[in-house]
Design brief:
Shape: globular
Radius of gyration: 16 Å
Helix content: 40-55%
Order of helices and strands: HEEEHHEEH
CATH topology: Recoverin, domain 1
CATH architecture: Orthogonal Bundle
Strand content: 15-25%
Distance between the termini: 54 Å
Largest sheet: 3 strands, antiparallel
Oligomer: single chain
Length: 88
């Protein structure tokens, strides 16, 4: 078996251009997003409308989810902003 066939399929990350292994691509539903961010449903959607939060991916007519890596990156950016503010 060649090395290429042993590797997991790759997917381009639309936000940064990086490649992601499909195995690590996980979609989070709203209850998990709320638990990770501490935001209510209305605050999540308010911040999406303001452009301050990742937009969900439509899974169907009545279902949406957020790529886990986008939520993680958003959380990391909040921590980095806090740390940068504390350093000044």
């Amino acid at each position: 078996m060649s090395q290429a066939t042993k590797q997991a399929p790759m997917l381009a990350d639309a936000t940064s251009g990086d490649s992601l292994h499909l195995q690590s691509l996980r979609l989070l539903r709203l209850p998990e997003v709320k638990a990770r961010t501490g935001y209510s449903r209305s605050e999540v959607y308010r911040r999406i409308a303001a452009g301050d939060f990742p937009a969900p991916v439509k899974l169907g007519e009545r279902a949406s989810a957020w790529p886990e890596h986008e939520i993680n990156a958003w959380c990391q950016a909040r921590i980095a902003a806090r740390d940068a503010k504390a350093a000044t």
